[in-house]
Specification:
185 residues; alpha+beta; SH3 type barrels; Arc Repressor Mutant, subunit A; 2 domains; two-stranded antiparallel ribbon; 7 strands; extended
Length: 185
């Protein structure tokens, strides 16, 4: 089974990551991404977060977690210079190498430990940290939709103008006809 990053979630209060197996309006079935591969039913009261929706605070805004994971992969591959047991300073220096603009007041060493843990799990599963293609396609679709919307709006405006011109010319004809009828009396 091929897992995509968009199908990976984290459960509040549970360690590790989970893959969405099936979802509907009332519940989601997830499978743990560990050796046990235990399935679990998640009802509406349990909080889950898609990895694609998680971001890391930066000085200006935030950066999607997927982009940070991709940067870690490009810079270090599978040889990470730190572990979850590294010192706080080493963890923060590691993140600074990957994301120099991260907000040092709102990002904690525990966040970096979680990032390392998740990176290892995702790497073990061979999951690609690629969202750019999907984002590009979505952007293209949005742009195409915007262009189509603009074209439709222009066509609608032209149709309204044409309708207004026809209506105005009919009013003029009607006025001329009325004038002609009154003069004929």
């Amino acid at each position: 089974m091929s897992i995509e990053i968009k199908d990976v979630v984290a459960l509040t209060g549970s360690p590790g990551l989970y893959c969405i197996v099936k979802s509907d309006d009332h519940a989601v079935i997830v499978e743990s991404m560990d050796a046990r591969r235990k399935r679990q039913l998640i009802k509406g009261s349990m909080l889950l977060s898609k990895l694609t929706d998680i971001s890391i605070y930066t000085d200006e805004d935030s950066t999607p977690l997927v982009h940070v994971l991709k940067a870690v992969q490009e810079k270090f591959g599978s040889d990470l210079p730190v572990t979850k047991k590294s010192s706080k300073d080493d963890l923060m220096d590691f993140l600074a190498e990957v994301l120099p603009t991260f907000d040092r007041e709102r990002v904690y060493p525990s966040n970096v430990k979680k990032l390392l843990s998740w990176y290892k799990i995702l790497s073990d599963y061979g999951i690609a940290f690629e969202l750019e293609q999907a984002e590009e396609e979505q952007t293209k679709e949005t742009e195409a939709g915007t262009e189509a919307s603009e074209e439709a709006s222009q066509e609608e405006t032209q149709a309204e103008d044409t309708a207004a011109e026809i209506e105005a010319s009919e009013e003029v004809k009607q006025e001329d006809t009325e004038k002609g009828e009154t003069t004929a009396l």
